[in-house]
Design brief:
With 448 residues, the protein is α+β, with helices and mostly antiparallel strands. The protein is globular, with a radius of gyration of 23 Å.
Amino acid sequence: MSDLLTYHYAQPSQLIKEASSEQLFLSKYSEIQKNTDAPCYFWGNVNNPFIMARCLITLSNIVKSSFSMSPFQMALLKDPIVTAGNGSVRFEGFSHCAGVYARVDVLPDGLDGEFLDNGTTNVDFNQPMLTALGGIRPNEKVMLSIGQKQVGLHREGEKVVERKVPLPVKWIKGLSTVQIYLSKAENVHTFNKIQTQQLFRGIPRGQVKNDYYLIIRGNTPMFTPVKSQNAICVGGLHRLRLLEPLLPYIDVLKIFPHPDMQSTTWQLYFGNIRFSFSLSRDAWRGFSGEGAALESLINDVSDEWVDALDKYAYANQAFNPTLFAIEENISFENVDSLTARLAAMGLLGFDLDENRFFYRRLPFKLNRIMSLNPRIKGAEKLIEDGKVEIISQTSERIEARVEGSGVRHTVILDSKNERCTCEWYSKYQGERGLCKHVLAVKKVANKG
């Protein structure tokens, strides 16, 4: 399987500056077209272009950063994704190691223009583009256009055309996991600008190898290496420094931890612009390898159902699984499986403030979903080769034997958790998703 999905744009993107206004045009590509006649998704003015520019520069720095990759891997820079739909424009991307996810949301009040269609494309943050964004001044008029337009930088007779960009496969995998984590996270703390700046000043210098914990003493938030009750665990704390350039401009900071501390999300607010920043459990762990959606993928769901829900989400540009299950009289389990498949394909993001999924149209086909999840493929192979044997099964407990490479694994599923004697489970204890043996047993048990 290739590690990249290469886009071939019919036209490049560009930032055009004329007199007192600037226009940013982003090119479009998709393998699955909903409306091939739409020449443009959105065009109009950004009400706070200075803050948007600061956020996009920070997003670009995140995309260029890595906390667990070699210099060779770092040389392959990738570019963020932008989605126009439901009155908002969203820019999002991952660090190279996929352990940091970031998104810039320009909300409806922050835009003065027209949405001609809903769609998703890629943004190229080359140096001329970053230089242009860095030159945007407060109260300067900037027009944003997203669609099939040329991409380049026009200034004093010069034109800079952006390069074509590949989309890393691990970004698709990372998008599925981070959205599942976000959908389970809840707001625990809200800090004003002064509290936030005090908190960030307490981040130790250099690379932080041990876990740190966010606690509140009096009205003051602080980080400490000592674990205590109700503290929020933050692995790879030094990664938060990527947010420091934005702190002088924020209104408030909200923190959304995952219930099991598998991620933390730090959401910065700038009036009608919002910056979301999610950290994986540890600096060396990327969201692409966590496997949070694997259990929902073991149930068989037809491509017709997935395609139907895809069209539903596209038409509404937002998706609440619970309401959909009630309205369509579908079981919650089936809706969870459908949601997991759309998220695994990168078609659903999650908005913490609205507490619902939003739709993005990535250039991705339905039949690629399993190829991105080797543990699912491994489970299917174990079942196909007849290597799964259910020893006993009741409503409370399942015991099974699974043939491995020269060894026989024991799998036990009960009301408390799932256990396996394989090396994967011994190492991660279920924190990074289910092993292929547990997935195979669950799939066989469900069919039985």
